[in-house]
Design brief:
Blueprint (H helix, E strand, L loop, with lengths): L8 H9 L5 H19 L2 E4 L1 H16 L11 E5 L26 H8 L3 E6 L27 H8 L5 E6 L5 H7 L2 E4 L19 E6 L2 H11 L17 H4 L8 E5 L9 H16 L3 E5 L5 H27 L5 H10 L4 H21 L5 E5 L19 H6 L3 E8 L5 E7 L5 H15 L16
Parallel strand pairs: 2-3, 2-4, 7-8, 7-9
Antiparallel strand pairs: 1-3, 4-6, 5-6, 5-10, 9-11, 10-11
Helix pairs in contact: 2-3, 9-14, 10-11, 10-12
Amino acid sequence: MGELWELTVREAVEAVASRRVSARELVQAALERVEQSEPAVRAWARLDPERALEQAGQLDERLSRGERAGPLHGVPVGIKDIMYTQGLETSAGSTLLKGFVPRYDATVVARLRAAGAVILGKTVTTEFAFLDPGPTRNPWKLEHTPGGSSSGSAAAVACGMVPAALGTQTIGSILRPAAYCGIVGLKPTYGRVSRHGIVPLSWTLDHPGPFARTVEDAALLLEVLAGPDGLDPACGPQPVERWTEACRLPASGLRVGVPDRFFLERSSPEVREAYGRALAALEGAGAQVREVRLPQEFEAGLVAQRTILAAEAATFHRPWFGRRADDYGPKLRALLEEGMRVPATEYIRARQVRRACRRAMAALFEELDVLATPTTPSPAPRGLESTGDPAFNGPFSFVGFPSVTVPVGLSEDGLPLGVQLAAKPFAETTLLRTAAALETASSWGRRLAQPAPVTAGR
């Protein structure tokens, strides 16, 4: 079975259910891996080891009585530090919320607990989930960014501190760090997963979603997280599906679109090469791959997205910003100042542009099942002053369509490369079916990052 921290979510669930491993042993192994890797990676805002071990012990007692808490019984997970956790500080990577301890769990956290998952702690986020970086480093190469804003969640999963974690995406904050760190990141359809109890960046753009090492694990997490929630008016009534079963379906007959512009012209040569190999692998698995023309509204959406983001972020932060503007990082502060200058007419026009983009993109998916692109223009950039370029992920966040990234190889410098897949709203079954086929064809396997020990000067 190897080291316990190497187990995927499905393997961990099976090991606990068969009593080959206890939940407490799983959590203890995760904590030991954190102790080993955290000094170099710095993925955690705060850990909750005592309560995690206590919860694991309670789960073991329940299993001894023949009671299984749910489909994630005993699995340790990380929670992005913008998601409310009852009794555990949620500071959103900011001094403004330092010491804030929620009285209730975010809906996604409550659903994880109800499914038997063990909350190991809170993972690092960039400040209020925007662009000012936190301390987290890429576990593949510590001098490179892990991406953001869900930096800690991606890094923690990538080096085996936890088999799964939660993040959010407003532009590219799940898929970009997942691709940079060599794992699977899933952004569900807007409204598929509740935002209740999550500190917002932009109400109409924020998407909660999971990080995992396999597509099947991401599908299992989505089965736990998804579903209606009366506490979130945007969370729709669509039923939870058996997405894990979709991961076992063949790729034959799937229609995969290759966009005619924007993505490849902005990609580095090795990204283009890895993308081409991935498309060939999908064709070899039976998918039909062909070029498609992006709608003319596509580029207009890129501008409108920034308007909506700035205006909504400024609205949320206005009460704090007027009194404590100097407590904000430079990038977020600039966004909020920009948002406070957006006229109502411009914001409303941006919302109209989004509706037009949604209609045009939905029409595109009448002739294909998924759109495939590189996940990022390049591998994770060197340096920790930036979280990288989210340009390839933003279009699907803007229209609220589901998207996923799958690792497909390494660059010449040993940094992960990913391919992004997107589908029409609430077509996660097709999306995950295609992603699982790509995962099999790419032969990424069970790779985990092995962070180098911390040395003087780091």
